[in-house]
Amino acid sequence: GAGLTGAITALMMVQRGFRVTMFEKRPDLREEFKREEEEKAGQPSEFWGASLSATKRSINLALSTRGQEALRRVGLLDRIMAHAIPMTCRAMHAHDGTLSFQPYGKSGQHINSISRRLINTLLLDACEARDVRMHFHVKLVSMDTNAQLTLQRADGSRFTARGRIVLGCDGAYSGVRSSMLRVSRANFSRHYIEHGYKELTIPPTAAGEYALSPHTALHIWPRHEFMMIALPNPDKTFTATLFAPFATLDALRSNAAVEDFFKAEFPDAVPVIPQLGEQYFAEAAGSLVTIRMAPWNLRDKALLLGDAAHAVVPFFGQGMNAGFEDALAFDEMLAAHGNDFSRAVPEFAEVRQRAGDAIATLSYENYVEMRSHTASAMFLLRKKVEGVLHALLGSSWIPRYAMVAFTRIPYDEVVARSRRQDAIVGAVTWAGIAAAAAGLAWGAAKLLKRSRL
Ligand SMILES: Cc1cc2nc3c(=O)[nH]c(=O)nc-3n(C[C@H](O)[C@H](O)[C@H](O)COP(=O)(O)OP(=O)(O)OC[C@H]3O[C@@H](n4cnc5c(N)ncnc54)[C@H](O)[C@@H]3O)c2cc1C
């Protein structure tokens, strides 16, 4: 697969001295995007929301430390960061349009909005420049127990290929994984959540400025059962994504119904999203899946990385980051074992699978936090308590979000540490509330006594 994980893994392997051949069933996305731009030139210019490609998926992504470290390893970090927009906080939109802000971390810490298209294009350009042999329009049909591949060209003709190892970076619907399941006793689960998503574009204002302020924030409209988020793009647009149960999404059947829904739930967003109905119906709702697989390897012959091994729901903004970190962690494992696949592959698969399972859990939990808790006063109070503890205790107390987004602490360790921290924060918060209540009661009693005198 020549997606995000496949391209960065290829670069790591080439850097390590291996020859890499990449097979991708789709056309070269760089060609496809060029064609789309040409087609778009013929569209009415105000039609921002139209998505012309069936393969287009989440126009921008949040890039954070794990992904950045992997990009640094292949020498592309600075080039990619030149196109990133820092997002320092969540900007929460209440029903009445009131904004409140929650910083993501300490001052200077932020996540980054980056175009999926740009990052994949730059990775593929680097693959080409570094002699990765890339074959587009070539689909994996199957892999046998010795990791020999049967592949199919666009004209239907088939051929076989074999290498020292097959790295399955072919996404949530991985063909490598399907073949591994046929020839081994691996365990596998696939879980669709009941929520789907729709993407909408918020164009710049007439003055050519971002329509949401500040533009250096991830905007969220939390509404308990559903939510909308918006991430900035360098062209002064925002990409908004509505996440809601399919039942809610499917119940909106006309432009008028969509507009009424938005007026009721996201009134301050309505003026900034033109052609709401047209945008809403331009694409079918996307679905969200969690994949777990164990083990990730077939002896030392084949190994899954990225979404193929651990597709996660996107609420921690970690799918790509985790895939990039897979590539980096595999590179580190190969370095530790002198490029010996027979030792590096099983060890990597075991250690990293624990991390993959943990980010799946964290990602789902963050959905509940984003759509629901971010709007609650208790949640905001707990965040404040966490911030104080982090300031006082430094690296021995790092809030869960910061551990995921701003460190390389293994995801499974993040889960264990945050469970311990949650228990303490809960106790401290309630103790604070109890102390405040006791203080209030004491003050009230004193006032009462005085008023009786
Ligand atoms: C709405 C949404 C928002 C997201 N936001 C974020 C975010 O903010 N931050 C973040 O880090 N992640 C985010 N993600 C997750 C991120 O998009 C994925 O984790 C990432 O794209 C996975 O990359 P991949 O290369 O592993 O898989 P893919 O991107 O799926 O690439 C797999 C490639 O393999 C090819 N392929 C598949 N089958 C075959 C075959 N049989 N033969 C040959 N080629 C094949 C495919 O064509 C594709 O090119 C989001 C996802 C969604 C859906």
UniProtKB/TrEMBL annotation:
Question: Which ranges does the record mark as transmembrane?
Answer: 423-445
| Top-rank lineage group of the source organism | Eukaryota
Which GO biological-process labels does this protein carry? kynurenine metabolic process; L-tryptophan catabolic process; NAD+ biosynthetic process; quinolinate biosynthetic process
Q: Which UniProt keywords apply?
A: FAD, Flavoprotein, Membrane, Monooxygenase, NADP, Oxidoreductase, Pyridine nucleotide biosynthesis, Transmembrane, Transmembrane helix
Q: Which GO terms describe its cellular component?
A: mitochondrial outer membrane
Q: Which HAMAP family match?
A: Kynurenine_monooxygenase
Instruction: Report what the protein is called.
Output: FAD-binding domain-containing protein
Please tell me the species this chain comes from: Bicosoecida sp. CB-2014
